[in-house]
């Protein structure tokens, strides 16, 4: 099993003009590792990161959108998998940090935690490009495909918490943070995403 922050650091070294939609613990880690204007921080509406990411991907088909979700969060909105499959945005990547707990809400275990197979749920909803990655080496080896393959792309990432990250809710919910994302997202990009 890999540490979430180490996994996200590998991703951060590779992203350029992709929009990142991050929620809860992944968002806190991502803000520490990769502060940038193209971060859309989806906190306060558990389960909606995939829906927010889908809307952004459909609105800007030329820009790759990567959702950094949690397993507990995705359980709150499993229907989004079918919606993503139906819309089939070629620029959409959904990475789910699987730690089998509602980490943001006190680490309560997920129902059926040990039986849940998130890649199988995504595949069953109609997303063809799915899989599960459990080691940092496997994630590093898969990054090229994750970042370039036509979407939707779905990967369940078996993770454990890493180093603690600040939880700056004032920044996340700040009007200036949203304005910077909106301006960055609207800018033309140099290279179109697949």
Description:
It is a single chain. The protein has one domain: Rossmann fold. Helices cover 42% and strands 19% of the residues. The chain contains 9 helices and 9 strands. The strands form 2 sheets. Strands 1, 2, 3, 4, 5, 8 and 9 form a 7-stranded parallel sheet that branches. A two-stranded antiparallel sheet has the order 6-7. Helix 1 crosses helix 2 and helix 1 runs parallel beside helix 7. It is globular.
Write the layout of secondary structure elements.
Layout: E1 2-3, H1 4-12, E2 19-22, H2 24-33, E3 39-41, H3 49-59, E4 65-70, H4 71-75, H5 79-87, E5 92-98, E6 101-102, E7 108-109, H6 118-125, E8 132-133, H7 136-148, E9 153-160, H8 169-172, H9 175-186
């Amino acid at each position: 099993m890999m540490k979430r922050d180490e996994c996200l650091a590998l991703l951060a070294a590779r992203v350029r003009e992709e929009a990142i939609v991050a929620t809860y613990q992944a968002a806190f880690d991502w803000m520490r590792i990769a502060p940038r204007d193209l971060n859309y921080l989806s906190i306060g509406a558990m389960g909606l990161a995939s829906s927010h990411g889908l809307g952004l991907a459909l609105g800007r088909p030329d820009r790759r959108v990567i959702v950094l979700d949690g397993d507990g969060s995705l359980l709150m909105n499993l229907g989004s998998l079918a919606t993503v499959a139906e819309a089939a945005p070629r620029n959409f990547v959904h990475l789910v940090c699987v730690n089998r707990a509602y980490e943001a809400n006190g680490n309560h275990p997920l129902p059926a935690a040990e039986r849940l197979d998130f890649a199988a749920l995504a595949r069953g909803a109609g997303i063809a490009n799915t899989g599960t990655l459990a080691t940092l080496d496997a994630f590093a080896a898969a990054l090229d495909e994750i970042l370039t393959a036509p979407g939707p792309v779905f990967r369940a990432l078996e993770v454990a918490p890493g180093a603690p990250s600040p939880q700056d809710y004032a920044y996340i919910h700040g009007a200036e943070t949203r304005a910077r994302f909106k301006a960055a997202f609207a800018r033309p990009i140099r290279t179109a995403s697949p």
